[in-house]
Amino acid sequence: MKTKYIIAILLTLLFVAGCQTNDETELNDQPSEPAQESSEDAEKDVEEVDSEEETKDMEVEDSDETKEEDETKEEASDIEEQKQKQTPKYKMNDLFGFDPIDDAEEQVVLMTIDDAPDQNAVEMAEILTEMNVPAIFFVNGHFIESEEEKKALKQIHDMGFAIGNHTYDHKNLKELTEEEQREQIVPLSDEIEKIIGERPIFFRAPHGANTDYAKELVKEEGMLLMNWSFGYDFKADYMDKEALTTIMLETELLGNGSNLLMHDREWTKEALPDIITGLRDKGFGFIDPSEIQTKDS
Ligand SMILES: [Zn+2]
């Protein structure tokens, strides 16, 4: 509503001020352009005519201009965010891979980085960002205790990556009492929320060791529990850039919707660009975690 109102005022201004007709044409020709672009363009024109006396009685006040522009942007990104949440494109299957919903692209994989943010996560996030690849970083509580570590988590989140809960101390949940399992999961979500402003919506158990209790708890906490399709960087044979790149690209487990497990490790960081390039060469795209259905439909 507000956007339409602003555009209406600005269009009126353009007519009153007798601006060039090509400005009007530009606006009229692109009704489907994002509102913020149109209103920004129009606002430039408003600034030009503002110095003229005849616009004084118009309802657009100089001091409100920036605020209104910000609000318009905020509104637009909120709508975009909501739209994505309302229309998930991928649903996780029983093997923790992803099936497309409707006509979503089939040949895609999900990138996940566990045991973050240790020594390499920020750099890995930078590589992913540079190569335009979304991912989930699964975080442990013992890695976000110092101010520096908290900052690293915030930085990764601010770069646009999804943050997942990987338990506080990386213990095997099957060896813990129910109360101990809860202590590994809920306080970590609280802590993550304190740092990034939102609770994680993805959960992965250390070693993929899930208990019935943890599954139920994770669901109550509004998180989607996932293991993975394949991963190799924790095995001695693949703690090396070349060996890891080769296996990640050549494994017969790689297929449409695969859920790729990687870790915050130096050799994985080194292999990451080649793994991404190799996947793209094979025709794979990457699932944006925000496109994953997290609630039962
Ligand atoms: Zn782990």
UniProtKB/TrEMBL annotation:
Q: List all Acidic residues biased stretches.
A: 38-73
Annotated PROSITE patterns: NODB, PROKAR_LIPOPROTEIN
Q: Which domain of life is it from?
A: Bacteria
Tell me which Gene Ontology terms the entry assigns under biological process. carbohydrate metabolic process
Comp. bias (Basic and acidic residues): 74-84
**Keywords linked to the UniProt accession:** Signal
Region Disordered: start and end of each range? 24-91
Question: Signal peptide: which range, if any?
Answer: 1-21
* Alphabetized Gene3D superfamilies for the sequence: Glycoside hydrolase/deacetylase
Q: Does the keyword Signal apply?
A: yes
Q: What InterPro entries does UniProt report for this protein, alphabetically?
A: Glyco_hydro/deAcase_b/a-brl (IPR011330), NODB_dom (IPR002509), Polysacc_deacetylase_ArnD (IPR050248)
GO terms of molecular function: hydrolase activity, acting on carbon-nitrogen (but not peptide) bonds
Q: Where is the NodB homology domain?
A: 107-287
Report the transmembrane regions from the record.
none
- Keyword Iron listed: no
Concerning SUPFAM superfamilies, the annotation shows: Glycoside hydrolase/deacetylase
What name goes with this protein? Answer: Polysaccharide deacetylase family protein
